[in-house]
Amino acid sequence: MRVLAVAVLAVLTAPAMAAEGMWTLDNLPKQAMQAEFGFSPDQAWVDKVMKSSVRLAGGCSGSFISPEGLVMTNHHCVVDCVAQLSSEGSDFVKNGFIAREHGDELKCPDMELNRLEQIADVTDQVRAATDGLNGDAYSKAKKAVQSRLEADCVGDDSQATRCDIVELYQGGKQHLYRYTRFQDVRLVFAPEVAAAFFGGDPDNFNFPRFNLDMGILRAYVDGKPAKLDNWFGFKQAGAAEGELVMITGHPGSTQRLLTVAQLKALRDGGLTDRLLYIAELRGLLTQYGALGEEQARQAQPDLFGIENGFKALRGRLDTLNDDAFFVRKQAEEDALRAFVAADPGLAENVGDPWAAIASAEATFDEFADAYLLIEGGRGFATEYFGIARGLYRAGAERELPNEKRLREFTEAGLPRLEQTLLSDAPLYPDYEKVKLAWSLTKLRETLGTDHPLVKRILGKESPQQLAARVIDGTRLGDVDARKALWLGGAKAVAASDDPMIALVRDIDAAARELRLRYETEVEAVEQKNAERIAQARFAKDGTGVYPDATFTLRLSYGAVQGWNEKGTDIPAMTHIAGMFERATGADPYKLPDSWLQHQADLDGSLPMNFVSTNDIIGGNSGSPVINAKAEVVGLVFDGNIHSLGGAYWYDGRLNRAVAVHPATIIQALRKIYGAGALADEMTGQ
Amino acid sequence: MRVLAVAVLAVLTAPAMAAEGMWTLDNLPKQAMQAEFGFSPDQAWVDKVMKSSVRLAGGCSGSFISPEGLVMTNHHCVVDCVAQLSSEGSDFVKNGFIAREHGDELKCPDMELNRLEQIADVTDQVRAATDGLNGDAYSKAKKAVQSRLEADCVGDDSQATRCDIVELYQGGKQHLYRYTRFQDVRLVFAPEVAAAFFGGDPDNFNFPRFNLDMGILRAYVDGKPAKLDNWFGFKQAGAAEGELVMITGHPGSTQRLLTVAQLKALRDGGLTDRLLYIAELRGLLTQYGALGEEQARQAQPDLFGIENGFKALRGRLDTLNDDAFFVRKQAEEDALRAFVAADPGLAENVGDPWAAIASAEATFDEFADAYLLIEGGRGFATEYFGIARGLYRAGAERELPNEKRLREFTEAGLPRLEQTLLSDAPLYPDYEKVKLAWSLTKLRETLGTDHPLVKRILGKESPQQLAARVIDGTRLGDVDARKALWLGGAKAVAASDDPMIALVRDIDAAARELRLRYETEVEAVEQKNAERIAQARFAKDGTGVYPDATFTLRLSYGAVQGWNEKGTDIPAMTHIAGMFERATGADPYKLPDSWLQHQADLDGSLPMNFVSTNDIIGGNSGSPVINAKAEVVGLVFDGNIHSLGGAYWYDGRLNRAVAVHPATIIQALRKIYGAGALADEMTGQ
User: Fold this and answer.
1) Cβ contact A185:A108 at 8 Å
2) Please, what is the average pLDDT of chain A?
3) Is B285–A281 a contact, with Cβ atoms under 8 angstroms apart?
């Protein structure tokens, strides 16, 4: 805590520390990079890097690493696909997967890749459409103009083009991102989970680390490997300590620009509620997995996500529970308010957005439980529910003009939605029943037995009875049944007697009401007032600051560098030999047989994992670490424990990104997995 | 939130609201009771009430209700005994238990009752022994004098007499409580859990409520029912709305006198850690219970405690997350500090205990995780570990002079310790393995794989392997094996090759070191400085205030009264008919067959549960509600949701105790359970 407290003072006097920031590619801190590292990227460099980077629509990052569409990312970014391609008796998660030739590459059921092609500033158009509006009118007008801009951008090529409005600076800027969309994505290589995630949850977010957290995909177009003009070269030697390294990727979400009232609401309710929910679910799924190998296999993808999320959220809560943190945030907010107050014209324009946001948070507090459980789906923790709701609402929404639809059903998003809803990834009814029954007990516990919606949902059934009835009775496990409802639209879902569809239908009016209340009384108020705060911030600091993360392409720069942990120096690199020393033979420190058999073939002195000062966060998983020549010198897969508070601030002395070293990647492919052809393709040989 | 904020102002101007306070019986607020209700208890009344009240050493309260040793308490206070007396195929928890005659009454394996006989003020003796000492010296001297005073009080009759030092006002007063001890306690009656805990966890801490949460025990002496001079009469008609009612019982613990630094430490760490721990354990045990009826039976007692604890702690955290709460606490603390500062003599004596306590909290933060996991036992969540550590340490400690022993091994406590360690309550190895393996993963996760103690404990084993090895190998499930180690003492445990004993032995030095650090650097500092704060508080307010709860006998007074919940009036009473209306046929709203069969025999208009304004907290479960004539007019079993913040403050407008009405108790015994003889004994017929 003391270390962070000292950092407060340093940061207060220098808004952006060295290496701080997740910068959009159209606003890179070239001057600072030049001053610190003697490197200032030119436009050709930026263009190449932009088109060589790739987003995994499910929540990760990656990089193109060959002209034949090869994509490098993390194992934990492809593990859902690996699990979906597995079955009882053929467990690729456990045993790994290697396609020896193109024909062996297997299509991932619901993977989508996005390559950024263009960024356009549409702030003025959005502002013009919402000028002078509030509440419901503001919310509707804004969504309408956003949907229209996206549809215009996509044109008639929605299969290959994706356009997303991105709200930067908490709404201060509206940008339109145009992507090339790849939906035929095939699995090329995944090591055994025991190598990819060696050390498991205990080592997650920790360092020293010894993970081969890599997965290789290939983008296909028209049934053939995609032909690419831009891709990253591969530098096996990696980067030296102290060398400039950049990370291009898609950090998901940060909350560094939130007001103190919003941060306190997170601390006092939102974050704690979510942590307690996933803690209990984790216990439940852990014990479900203990039933047997097959049950463990079924639960693993969820459990991985939950354990990862638990640590990440816990790290954030620890930051919010640090009094020094709020001292800094309050000081920043006070300084901005004083700046506004000192300029009568600005004060007139900006008003008191902080009070309006605090009031919206108090309003949300009144119905947040119901909103999160019913509309947010926490009360219905099963894949079937998400599918049923998607199909049901897609029916109604597609009848409406594009601009009046719920945002997730606009034309621009339909290809991704269809891919997700009609995915042939397997579902396990017994497993889904356990989750649904449990989450229904949380619904009842949180809202209370006497809540009208709880009474309506459960009637005289227990959570277990309801879960069993709707999951035993549903036909949504069958992709053809889903397809019929998708194609049949509103009429088909209205007529459906599928019990899962019926459950969704029964609560849909109430769920939409909660959503409308949220969008009108909370979201619209917060967005409108965040725009005002952004206006004040631009007036005070200009646009030489970076926006909060939005799961869009960003570049962070830093150096390969260890840190000092309470008096102990943590070296920047680990080596292959250390992994063998750490192995115990017992999960999660049990090495796969392939590694044990080939231990003698490996050069134990090669670097395995390393840390750098780059500012990253969840969503950056799978990002390439590149050098000034735009060569891959690492593969990001984690942050250290101090990086977790990065949602709210950045401390350059402790915050570290964790990456796989390219030497180990190539060594493992060649010596352990006999995947020389793949290594050749990656290294351009 | 708004309601509590208003309460702040009211409370600031009137330190003790009507009905606030858990008063020791030697310092009752007679004047206030007289003024508010026209009743002032005389000494004879107090003596009778004191000797008619009883403590369940495991953590509950009760009352003597016949001259033949009959004890009334809650079902949830006897459910451990009921479960221990059950076995596969004979499930008294599910089916209930009735002893038709004395010979059918079954001895509870580890139940102890305590009846308070005398209170002596020993503050001066303790103060004299610790005067001028600090840290380790203070801690040792204090424990020594406390152990000596207890031993002197017990004399040579430790089987029938129990003496406990009680630190009141956070150490401001030291009292010596002498009890009669009953260890032969037999189960007389327990309804089906479905009637006792109708509505289960969802209804827990909520109201309206419909529970027959009662259990009847009988104290035996020399193999015969205890003959008593004092017991409570029973008034079937109960108390009218608005009538004065008093609750005598043993509230476990409140933290109303803690400093702001201590409360913030609870909010920012302690409470959240514990909540997350039990949330995950809850999920684990829920799913273990889903394996089958027998597994559900095994997990039920733990799950009940966990679910109850979860809600209680969550309620407390909500209070600590209320900014208005800290505004009030800070104002109280500031006022006390200002009072001290204004009096140079007092300031000289008192110093700055607040800063010292804040510093001790910061110190604790450095090693709290290790302390709680290793010495606190969170890393070893199995009954076997508690037994093994008890036996192991009992060996070493009993070799020491009484005054040098760890407090839980002093002579005065040995009878209760022996009863607990040699209890023949059944243990279920498979179930215990699940808990132990899980808690070992928490140990590793929290301290990290590289922590020396984690390495020492796990070595090359996984948590699952270690748990299986020590539980498969231990002989501590056999009471005779335990007895041999208990009688064999230090030599026997040193020579034992029992793997559970070996595990305890292996970490005992490290565990004791953590404990010593805690007692010296945290506990001693906080106690010594709490004494100073108490000194300041006495100087400012006199002793007309009540001490924090200490699981010792207290009286709270109030009135039967509903409350207003966000604009809706909640009536004070529910009625039997409402229970049948609420029943769904599905657990936890499934009525037992006995109730369904006898529905027509019952008078549905009789009051079932009711609320009153009395100030109570966990530990009060099983307390009698009595009227001015010292007649039982209710049986406390819960508080409403607003009572949970009662750990830190009391809000008389919302805080309510929840009790079973005597009319329903007698009706159920006579009409449903055919237990007329028992009803006759209770009602003195």
Assistant:
1) yes
2) 93
3) no
The more confident residue out of B469 and B135 is: B469
* Contact between residue B592 and residue B192 where contact means Cβ atoms under 8 Å apart: yes
Note the pLDDT tens digit of each residue in B261-292: 999 999 887 899 999 999 999 999 999 999 99
In this predicted complex, what is the ipTM?
A: 0.89
Q: Look at B287 and A288 and tell me if their CB atoms are within 8 Å.
A: yes
Per DSSP, the three-state class of A679 is: helix
Q: Does the pLDDT at position B470 exceed 90? A: yes
Q: Which is nearest to B176 in space by CA: B550, B539, B647?
A: B550
Domain assignment present for A223: yes
pLDDT confidence of A324, banded at 50, 70, 90? confident
Q: Is residue A79 part of a domain?
A: yes
Same domain, B246 and B273: no
B345 in a structural domain: yes
Which residues fall within 8 angstroms of residue B31, CB to CB, at 6 or more apart?
B40
Contacts B206 to A, Cβ<8 Å: 448-449
Name residues whose C-beta falls within 8 Å of residue A210's C-beta, 6 or more positions apart in sequence.
A198, A199, A203, A574, A576, A578, A579, A582, A608, A609
Taking only residues 564 to 623 of chain A, the set having a beta carbon closer than 8 angstroms to any beta carbon of chain B reads 584-587, 589
Q: What residues of A are in contact with residue B285 (Cβ under 8 Å)?
A: 283, 287
Looking at the structure, tell me whether residues B301 and B221 fall in a common domain.
no
Task: Specify whether B208 is located in the same domain as B292.
Answer: no
Question: What pLDDT, on the 0 to 100 scale, is given for residue A542?
Answer: 81
Q: Does A42 touch chain B (CB under 8 A)?
A: no
The three-class DSSP label of residue A669 is helix
Closest to B277 (Cα-Cα) out of A276, A450, A526: A276
List the beta bridge partners of residue B161: B180
pLDDT at residue number B546: 92
Note the pLDDT tens digit of each residue in A78-90. Answer: 999 999 999 888 9
**Residue A171: inside a domain:** no
A565 and A526 together in one domain: no
Q: Which of A519, A541, A563 is the last residue of a domain?
A: A541
Percent of chain B's residues with pLDDT above 70:
97
| pLDDT cut 90: percent of chain A above it | 87
| CATH code: domain of residue A28 | 2.40.10.120
Domain boundary among B518, B541, B564: B541
Q: Are B553 and B24 in contact (CB under 8 A)?
A: yes
Selected residues 342-381 of chain A with any CB under 8 Å from a CB in chain B = 362, 365
Q: Identify the domain containing residue B337 by its residue range.
A: 260-541
Token pair in block for residue B427? 């243990």
Does A93 lie in the same domain as A18?
A: yes
pLDDT by residue (tens digit) across B26-37?
Answer: 999 999 999 999
- A206 and A355 in one domain? no
What's the gap in Å between the CA of A444 and the closest CA on chain B?
A: 7
The residue type found at B557 is Y
- At B505-556, the pLDDT tens digits run 999 999 999 999 999 999 999 999 998 999 999 999 887 889 999 999 999 9
Task: Round to whole Å and give the CA distance between B1 and B18.
Answer: 21
* H or E element, residue A220: strand A215-221
Q: Is the bond preceding B588 in cis, omega lying within 30 degrees of 0?
A: yes
A-chain residues near B264 (CB < 8 A): 323
Instruction: Please state the pTM of the whole predicted model.
Output: 0.90
Separation CA A354–CA A333 (nearest Å): 9
The tally of domains found in chain A comes to: 2
The pLDDT, as a whole number, for residue A18 is 65
What is the rounded distance in angstroms from the CA atom of residue A606 to the CA atom of residue A628? 23
Q: What confidence tier does B18 reach under pLDDT thresholds 50, 70, 90?
A: low
Sign, CA torsion A325/A330/A333/A334: negative
Read off the pLDDT of each residue in A378-384 and give the average, rounded to a whole number: 98
